Amino acid sequence: MSETAPPLSKKQEFEVSQQEQENEKSYPDSIPTGSGTTATRVNEEGDISYLKDTDVALMAKYKLINDAIDEIGFTWYHFGLFCLTGFGYAADSLVSMIQSAVQTYAVYYQYNFDYPISTEFCYFGLFAGAVAIGFTSDLIGRKTAFNCSLILSAVFGFMAGGSSSLAMYMVNMFMANFFLGGNLALDVTLLLEFLPSKWQHLNTFLACWWGVGQTICELIAWGFIPNFSCSVKGACPMHENRGWRYTWYAGSGLVLVMGLARVLFFQLHETPKHLVSTKRDAEAVRVLQELAAKHNRQCSLTIEDLQRCGEISINDDFISKASFSESMKQIWHHVKLLFLNKTVARSNVLLIISWFGIGITYGIYNNFLYAFLASQGASTGSSTHQIYRDATIECFFSIFGPIIAAYLMLIPKVGRRGTLVIGGVSSMILLMCYTKVRDEAANVSYWCCFVFGFE
């Protein structure tokens, strides 16, 4: 016979009860869902298991938001948001490409400055804007930063085109790219936080808009630069060298139209994930319920479902107590979340290294590779008209790479990792082969193949 355990004293029973309550509070066995059922522990939910060391209440709320978005499904709102963020992607590439397209006629011919300083200011502006506006959107919300970024970039783009000195040109171009860098970060974030899980491959498909923006830029430059520019450095009065200014004006005008379209013709909602992360659960539920009602879809999520998850402790509503010290506190807290545990840290470090490599490659390719080829005796274009025509053709082919990548992601044996490997390896091989280009036909052929794989 098995021996019966001795009964616990009242003190021991109280201690055991308290320990069980603490365990239940720190890591709940189940999470309520919008449909009234329960989901398993957060660390058993595949997509967010790597966040198990963070705020359990927030992760539970994210799970409910994801389920609600999946329940609603893909709607015309999501299609409109895809186009809207796509316009932003196109604007990002358009303005950043203008700097490269007009560099010879603005910096070298107009201001007699041989060092490609505009390239430095352009990419530093993109970097600073992505960091500053990216963190700002975590504090004030995605909607406000998203709506303002393109309009402000267009304003400084017009000012860059009208600059009367090199210093003014550098400052205005830096600010135009500063706001574009922030917009670039927000386009992907805003779309991803609204997409149902089965449609997240559209985030990769979004990159096709980058090629659209580049193609538009080269078309504008092709129309203005050959017809309104000096042919040699030195004897280049301002009234004979207006092509680069017209390119800035036309490009900035398109960006302004895109920015105003966001505000005037589309009812943009704040993302529910941002709302719950800043303790605004009621607003998050209202956004999802309105979206479902407008498109005749079901949404069973209620404020009670979110409240049962508990109070989040990892973040706060910045708007309700905005201050400089609180801003720095929240930003530092968000930086630490990037290295929350080994899995998250490894993932983010790899992403940073990947984008660092892409940034180096992209800058070298668009700004310095032609100089290298010319030093090796290559002749990739005999006239300004031909150079910009070829560039337009090459940029057009970059539109189709992301479309193929989005399709490859849907193949189970390829997926995201396989698509990255295919694109990375093929781009590396083509870029190395490109250094052997010596004539126009090879230049166009290799560029078209490279941008197809790279984009």
Plain-language structure description:
- This protein is mostly helical.
- The protein has a domain at 53-319: Growth Hormone, Chain: A (Up-down Bundle), CATH 1.20.1250.20.
- Helix content is 69%, strand content 1%.
- It has 19 helices and two strands.
- Strands 1-2 form a two-stranded antiparallel sheet.
- A hairpin with a 5-residue loop joins strand 1 and strand 2.
- Helix 3 runs antiparallel to helix 4, helix 3 packs antiparallel against helix 6 (166-194) and helix 18 (415-434) runs antiparallel to helix 19 (440-454).
- The longest helix is centred in the first third of the chain and has 35 residues, at 76-110.
- The radius of gyration is 26 Å and the shape is globular.
- The chain starts with 9 loop residues before the first helix and ends with a helix.
